[in-house]
């Protein structure tokens, strides 16, 4: 059993019948049309773990709201202690004591930084002055959000894929109820919380499933492979501190490393490490999907 930040989960072996590409020193080539990428579960979990170690137990002494669009009840926050820091889907939750919570969503380029690189400070939209230091909500595009909740977590999300509740049976039940293409289905936060474009693509490659197939056509055998693929790719990405293409950094300003281990995402035109077929990119709902037409059926 391992602690995930939201509960205990069973450890699932990551050895599977696919061959992961070795880490390479060369920079990953991404399609020239630069997509906007939102931090997904591994990136948010990495940030949460760093913050949990650094500021759990700290008291909020002052709120410095720089962006006028941020509205927080200062009287409900100042003087309270950060009792716990958790992840829910792609949200970061600061549980305050004796009550209340601060809830952050980074969206495309938001960061929660204890250490700012030169020039980053000018994009700070909110600064938490703690008795143990300073935490900045850096949000260049102003797409990230922060809110205060007096009554727990207010958003409706699906099952956490690294929790014990995410079983093969649960995944099969979810898939059976949808005719949507399986990749957009996996990215629906009301079904499975935290999966996004990168890890849905990678999980489907591991399971050898074409992302364009209808969710309700996935067989029992394929559902087992997909479950293994989802859990293993998330676990491995967390071990490598997430995936960084451009914006993502952890709370200390460090980049992730899993971009060097991606099998299919962003690799249009390269050969599949499993079967040698050229990887292609297709459009699904305005998002790029990468797949191997040779071994994903």
How would you describe this structure to a colleague?
This protein has two domains: 2-34 and 158-291, Helicase, Ruva Protein, domain 3 (Orthogonal Bundle), CATH 1.10.8.50; 43-149, N-terminal domain of MutM-like DNA repair proteins, CATH 3.20.190. It is 22% helix and 21% strand. It is built from six helices and twelve strands. It has helices spanning 41-55, 74-77, 168-176, 182-186, 197-207, 220-239, and strands at residues 2-3, 8-9, 60-65, 81-88, 91-97, 101-105, 111-113, 124-130, 133-138, 145-149, 280-284, 287-291. The strands form four sheets. It has a four-stranded antiparallel sheet with strand order 3-8-9-7, with no helix packed on it. A hairpin with a 2-residue loop joins strand 11 (280-284) and strand 12. Helix 1 (41-55) crosses helix 6 (220-239), helix 3 crosses helix 6 and helix 5 (197-207) crosses helix 6. The longest helix is centred in the last third of the chain and has 20 residues, at 220-239.
Q: What's the CATH architecture name of the largest domain? A: Orthogonal Bundle
Percent of residues in helices comes to: 10-25%
Q: What is the level 1 CATH name of the largest domain?
A: Mainly Alpha
- Helix segment tally: 6
Low-confidence stretches: 1-33
Rg result:
20 Å
**How much strand?**
15-25%
- Describe the main β-sheet briefly: 4 strands, antiparallel
Secondary-structure element sequence?
EEHEHEEEEEEEHHHHEE
Distance between the termini: 33 Å
Helix/strand class: alpha+beta
Spatial strand arrangement across the major sheet: 3-8-9-7
Shape: elongated
Mean pLDDT: 88
Total domain count = 2
Beta strands, count = 12
CATH fold-level label of the largest domain: Helicase, Ruva Protein, domain 3
């Amino acid at each position: 059993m391992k602690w995930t930040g939201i509960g205990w989960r069973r450890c699932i072996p990551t050895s599977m019948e696919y061959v992961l590409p070795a880490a390479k020193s060369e920079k990953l080539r991404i399609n020239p049309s630069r997509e906007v990428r939102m931090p997904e579960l591994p990136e948010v979990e990495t940030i949460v773990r760093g913050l949990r170690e650094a500021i759990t137990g700290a008291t909020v002494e002052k709120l410095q709201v720089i962006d006028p669009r941020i509205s927080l009840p200062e009287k409900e926050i100042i003087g309270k202690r950060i009792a716990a820091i958790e992840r829910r889907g792609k949200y970061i939750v600061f549980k305050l004591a004796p009550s209340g919570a601060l809830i952050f969503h980074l969206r495309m380029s938001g960061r929660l930084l204890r250490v700012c690189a030169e020039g980053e400070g000018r994009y700070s939209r909110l600064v938490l002055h703690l008795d143990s230091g300073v935490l900045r909500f850096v949000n260049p595009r102003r797409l990230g959000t922060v809110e205060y909740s007096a009554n727990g977590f207010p958003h409706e999300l699906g099952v956490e894929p690294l929790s014990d509740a995410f079983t093969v049976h649960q995944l099969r039940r979810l898939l059976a109820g949808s005719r949507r293409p399986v990749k957009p289905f996996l990215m629906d936060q009301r079904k499975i919380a935290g999966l996004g474009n990168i890890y849905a693509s990678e999980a489907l490659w591991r399971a050898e499933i074409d992302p364009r197939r209808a969710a309700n056509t996935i067989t029992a055998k394929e559902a087992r492979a997909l479950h293994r693929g989802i859990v293993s790719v998330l676990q491995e990405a967390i071990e490598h501190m997430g995936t960084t293409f451009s914006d993502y950094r952890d709370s200390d300003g460090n980049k992730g490393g899993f971009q060097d281990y991606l099998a299919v995402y962003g690799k249009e035109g390269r050969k599949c490490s499993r079967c040698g077929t050229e990887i292609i990119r297709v459009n699904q709902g305005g998002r790029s999907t990468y797949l191997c037409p040779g071994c994903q059926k």
